[in-house]
Design goal:
CATH superfamily: PhyR, sigma-like (SL) domain
Order of helices and strands: HHHHHHH
Number of strands: 0
Strand content: under 5%
Distance between the termini: 49 Å
Number of helices: 7
Shape: globular
Mean pLDDT: 81
Length: about 170
């Protein structure tokens, strides 16, 4: 029942963190396995979902770190969030603009630290509260807010040429 209830949201989180469907599936499987093995450590202070997100986030970040160490990580053309959205038939200039934006966004997401990326995804894609994100990442609320703020600033700077906003 717990797998049915939480696997889709854990997969979405894992996919957004890893940018890869296979890795996301591995993260989901390993997260539930680790949760099962450590069930006696669940103390009920946080919701089960938050506890499971922490396990999944930690495993996804560990996976990304190990890839960085072995240089097996995707390049900056890695497909993060927008690649699975089917594109309608568009004029050539719009298609080029779309491709450039997708590449810039993927590069910007890849440039975030692991903690910034995780905090940003949990906040802006998953809709979690600052408190829940802090619990999932194992950091305080102040550090969580700082991670989200830094991620937003970096993404804003990277995407600024595409929206024409200057600050």
């Amino acid at each position: 029942m717990l797998v049915e209830r939480h696997s889709r949201s854990v997969f979405r989180l894992a996919y957004r963190l890893t940018g890869n469907e296979q890795d996301a599936e591995d993260v989901v499987q390993e997260s539930f396995l680790r949760a099962y093995r450590q069930l006696e450590k669940y103390d009920g202070r946080a919701g089960f979902h938050t506890w499971l997100y922490r396990i999944a986030t930690n495993y996804a970040l560990d996976l990304l770190r190990s890839r960085k160490r072995t240089n097996q990580r995707k390049d900056e053309e890695g497909n993060y969030m927008l690649d699975n959205i089917p594109a309608a038939e568009t004029p050539a200039d719009r298609a080029v603009f779309s491709l450039q934006l997708r590449q810039r966004l993927a590069g910007a997401m890849a440039s975030l630290s692991d903690q910034e990326r995780a905090a940003f995804v949990l906040r802006h894609f998953e809709g979690h509260s600052i408190h829940e994100i802090g619990e999932a990442l194992g950091v305080g609320e102040s550090a969580t807010k700082n991670s989200i703020f830094r991620a937003v600033q970096k993404l804003r700077r990277a995407l600024e040429p595409f929206v024409g906003v200057t600050r």
